[in-house]
Amino acid sequence: MSLLVGVVAAYLIGAIPIGLLVARGFGVVDLRSSGSGNIGATNVLRSAGRMAAVLTLVGDVAKGYLAVAAGAALAGASPLGGAAAAVAAVAGNCWSPFLLFRGGKGMATGLGAFLRLVPLATLPAVLVWLVVALTFRYASLASLMAALCVPLGAVALRYPVESLAATAAAVAIVYYRHRDNIGRLLAGTERRLGARRA
């Protein structure tokens, strides 16, 4: 029962639509009707500006970290509790009950969640994101490449098997949520960072 309580708590914390709330504070009435319609920091950047995007990014990372910390505390100090909470936080961000089970793509929330669960495996992913984003200027490609680094790092650093399974599950969710971006990347039609909608 304690595991279930922890997972539900992590899911609900992860489901808080930070981007939607921040964008509203910057004058964008409904972020889902602006830009790409996504509630993540990239669309906030395009729709509400840099400060709003930074606040969204920080908020999403923080809620992911908090979701795992709270979920693990409620579920008990077992590796399974924290691992399940991490996946629940990412799922909550992607399928939020506050948004009729729509949401973001899980990347920033996943970053926060795995900074709490497997920090040494997660930090290199931040560097990979920066290098790819600055080199190719595709936020989606940077996210996809960085996401792969986390389970690989977790394996290399010999984190518990529960944590390895959680990173793999989260990466699967992130890739599924980026399926349209993957199609546009392959077709050469994906928008670059800094590009304005025509």
Summarize the structure.
The chain contains 10 helices and no strands. By secondary structure, it is mainly alpha-helical. The chain has one domain.
How would you describe what is shown here?
The protein has one domain. The model has no long low-confidence stretch (mean pLDDT 94). Helix 1 runs antiparallel to helix 4 and helix 4 packs across helix 6. It has 10 helices and no strands.
What's the helix and strand layout?
Blueprint: H1 2-14, H2 18-25, H3 41-48, H4 50-75, H5 79-94, H6 107-117, H7 119-136, H8 139-156, H9 161-177, H10 179-187
Helix pairs in contact: 1-4, 1-5, 2-3, 2-4, 3-4, 4-5, 4-6, 5-6, 5-9, 6-7, 6-9, 7-8, 8-9
Structural class determined from secondary elements: mainly alpha
DSSP E strands, number = 0
Mean pLDDT: 94
Order of helices and strands: HHHHHHHHHH
Distance between the termini: 51 Å
Which radius of gyration do the C-alpha atoms yield? 16 Å
Largest sheet: none
Shape: globular
Indicate how many domains the architecture comprises: 1
Proportion of beta-strand residues = under 5%
User: What is the helix fraction of residues, given as a range?
Assistant: over 70%
User: How many individual helices?
Assistant: 10
Identify low-pLDDT runs.
Answer: none
Characteristic terms for this protein:
198 residues; mainly alpha; 10 helices; 73% helix; 0% strand; globular
